[in-house]
Amino acid sequence: MPKVLFLLAEGFEELEAIAPLDLLRRAGIEVTVAALSPGIHVTGRCGLTVHADTLLDAVAEHTLFDALVLPGGPGVKHLRADPRVRSTVLAHHAGGRWIAAICAAPTVLLDAGLLSGRRYTAHPSVALELPERLGEERVVIDGRILTSRGAGTALDFGFALVEQLTSTGQSHEVSQAICA
Amino acid sequence: MPKVLFLLAEGFEELEAIAPLDLLRRAGIEVTVAALSPGIHVTGRCGLTVHADTLLDAVAEHTLFDALVLPGGPGVKHLRADPRVRSTVLAHHAGGRWIAAICAAPTVLLDAGLLSGRRYTAHPSVALELPERLGEERVVIDGRILTSRGAGTALDFGFALVEQLTSTGQSHEVSQAICA
What we know:
The structure is a homodimer. The first copy, chain A, is an alpha/beta fold. Chain A has helices at residues 14-26, 76-81, 83-94, 106-111, 154-165, 168-177, and strands spanning 3-8, 30-35, 41-43, 49-51, 54-55, 67-70, 98-102, 139-142, 145-148. In chain A, the strands form 2 sheets. In chain A, strands 5-2-1-6-7-9-8 form a 7-stranded mixed sheet, with helices on both faces. In chain A, strands 3-4 form a two-stranded antiparallel sheet. The two termini of chain A are 24 Å apart. The A-B interface holds A 13-15, 18-19, 21-22, 25-26, 33, 41, 46-51, 123-124, 138, 149-153, 155, 175, 177-180 and B 13-15, 18-19, 21-22, 25-26, 33, 41, 46-51, 123-124, 138, 149-153, 155, 175, 177-180.
């Protein structure tokens, strides 16, 4: 069973975290939500507080998951400022694992030097910061980096990740079950 | 500014609650999430625990909101079994307020006698229980009852509610902002 790690910071975009979490867990994938903050209660940009499963500090430093998910929202500034996030991203990339980032979160991959020469997408609000290979598709996959545009594409983002981690058939089954 | 009340029971479907909550708050609508349970921590069907804003018992009995939202998921059995939910639904209906139900939650409206002679939709898993005027559209509006099919139509559900409570323009603005 594939294992996926979500990184949650204060100000995360609720739908961008919860849509992929919901679809991945429905597909039988083991999801661990890790909070950057000192406690497991994390409040999103729309004011909803959720419980993470654990703290980022409690995730063993050299543990690699099959995929790492970075939701967007104003909380991306905390992801970018945190050296633990950078090292987690780089370790997963070096280990050939999936990295999935949506909305403003692809800027974390930019900071880590993972976007050069790569096709990707992101929210238009961060387009000026990003190099020119920014696509306008709802989801872009290049190598094992999967990017998407915003809360309105969060389901596409989640389905694409389910498909890569399991199969097209499994993703279709979840889609049918939820009337997507 | 319109005010909306969400009713959250253990086992609620995360996306069906959080997609409309996110869109409504982005549209500037005041959303109150009330838990049925004795505490404000409520765990959804995918294992995510969220904080409600208040308890249903703390919402003054005769307070009417502009809309009442009932998410689906296995938690619907708790909505159906709770006389406070039934009386809240009936009070909002009698007061000409919107009632929005998704997935299995339209069965709560069935129990309250609000579906007879009305067009609506719901999740196919509860179709056998429902009278024959079940539509297959992603969202059905009949009078002030707005229904939808499941987690995969939760964004459509949220946008339809934003549009009814504000305007098509406002709904379009939110849609643009999140790359829907």
